[in-house]
C-alpha cells in the first residue's frame, strides 16, 4: 500500500515538473521568436515586430502644406534597397524589433538597419531621416510636439524594456535547464528562476506597451493648416502580443514548480514551526489560517536521513496529514 502511494506521489511530482517544463519551454521559444523580429527581411523575422508605423498616406498632409501648384514629388522611394537614414526617400511601412528596424516599400520588399543590442525605438527620427531635407522641414512644422517626437523618452524606456526581457529570457532558460534534474534543490532553483523571469518579463512588457501606446498619440494628430489627420499610423506589432503570451506561460509555470520542490525537514516530535516557507505551505492542504493549529504528518519512510524514536522525517510532498500520538504543533 505504502509502495503504491509513493509511486502515485512520484507520478504526481513528475507530472508537475513536466507541466512546468512545457510552460517554460513554450515561453522560451516565444521569446526567441520575439528576439529575432526585424533582424532581416527573411520570412520569419519579417513577420514579427514590436511596433509598426504606416506612412503610406502621409502625402496628403504634406500636400496641404504647400500649394497645389507644386505637387509632392520625391517624398517616397520605390527602391527597396535604398539606404536608410540617408534622405533617400520615405518608405510605406516601418517595423521595429529589439535589435533593428526594417523599412518596406511594399508588404515584402524592404531593407533593415544596422543591428544594435537594445535598439532604441525612435520613430520620429527614423522617418524624418529618410525624407529629403525640404520634406523633413515640413514634417517638423506640422507634426505636433507630442510623445511621438520625444525620441529620448521612447528610446530610454524601450531600451530598458529590452534588457529586462533579455534577462527574463535567460532566467526562463535556466528554469528549464535546472528543472530537468530530479533533485529538490534544482526544483527549488527552477521555481526561483521562474519567479524572477516572470517579474522581469512583466516589467519589460509593460515598458514596451507604454512606449507603443504613448506613440500612438500621433494617430489622432492633425495638420494645423487644415485640421486634417496627418495619416501617420502607429500600431502594436505581433511581437508585443507574443511577449505577453510568453509572460503568461512563464507565470503559469511557477505554481507547478513550487508544488514539486518539496524539501524534507528533520524535526523533533515536539517541534514548533513558527514560520513556513511558501513552497512548503503549498503542500499543507489541510492547514487553515488558524493560530497554532495542531496537526499530524505522515512519516515518509523514503527520506534519505537517519531517524530515531524522537525525530520525524517530514516531507511536504505527501499532503495526506495523518494524526500521530504526539502531533506537531504548527504555528501559521
UniProtKB/TrEMBL annotation:
One of its GO terms (cellular component) is cell cortex of cell tip. It holds the Pfam family SUR7. Keywords: Membrane, Transmembrane, Transmembrane helix. The keyword Ribosomal protein does not apply. InterPro entries: SUR7/Rim9-like_fungi (IPR009571), SUR7_domain (IPR052413). GO terms for biological process: fungal-type cell wall organization. The keyword Iron-sulfur does not apply. It comes from the Eukaryota. Signal peptide: none annotated. The chain crosses the membrane at residues 161-180, 187-211, 239-259. This is Actin cortical patch SUR7/pH-response regulator PalI.
